[in-house]
Amino acid sequence: MFSWLFPKKETSREEQESVSQSENFRDISKVADFFKTLSGVTFDKQLSILESKTKSFCRQRDIYSYEELLEKITRDETLKQELINHLTTNETFFYREFKQIAELVSLVQEQSSPVSILCAPCATGEESYSIAIALLEAGVPPTRFHITGIDINSRAIEKAKIASYRERNVKNLLGDVLYKYFDKNEDRYDLKESVKNLVAFKVMNIFDHEFTMLGKFDYIFSRNMLIYFDLPTKQKAKKILESMRKDPSKEIFFGHADLF
Fold it and tell me: Which of 63, 144, 172, 217 could be cross-linked to 95 through a Cys-Cys bond (beta carbons 3.0 to 4.6 Å apart)?
């Protein structure tokens, strides 16, 4: 009523852009398919989690639809890596499933020649460093082994290289081990350089060709990765990892939840 008394307000350019850039987050399936092809990880039973995480990622970067996201990450490698980091998890701790680490230590002690060990994935470094510490504690000289850790999450790799951990990450380590291999810094435990130097970390996807270029290893740890894959992808990943063994008769150390 009485609208004729007031001049019609012009729509600003900003308002027009806001209207044209309204959100359109309707179908997450294409993002799920893309991420599965890229990383092997399937969200088939967790689409709501994928949707929530991806929306958050987009809104933080002024991306207004899944289609726009997919278009941008095909052109922007940095953005694609940021999405990988956002959608992958890397929570772990030292001496997790230690029985397998102890088994590895026994096998290494039986050998006289230096051994190479692969951790794929390595998350934020706890498993790789756990193996190094366990070998050192067993009297294996640092010249007798070298460990490579790879992970698709670049943020996790950066944390692994820094090797500064909270108390919950080192909860399984005895006090004398903490004192021997870590420096206490307020509420953090910083791994000593002598241990950090025994592990090389790389940002890498096991499904990329570059992964096989790492060469072959005496022992391979790949724990709690296959649980994120469907059966065909598990079989593909297992075949790739098996091809990385120096000795085909040696079993790969998979996590108990990875069995299929």
Answer: 172
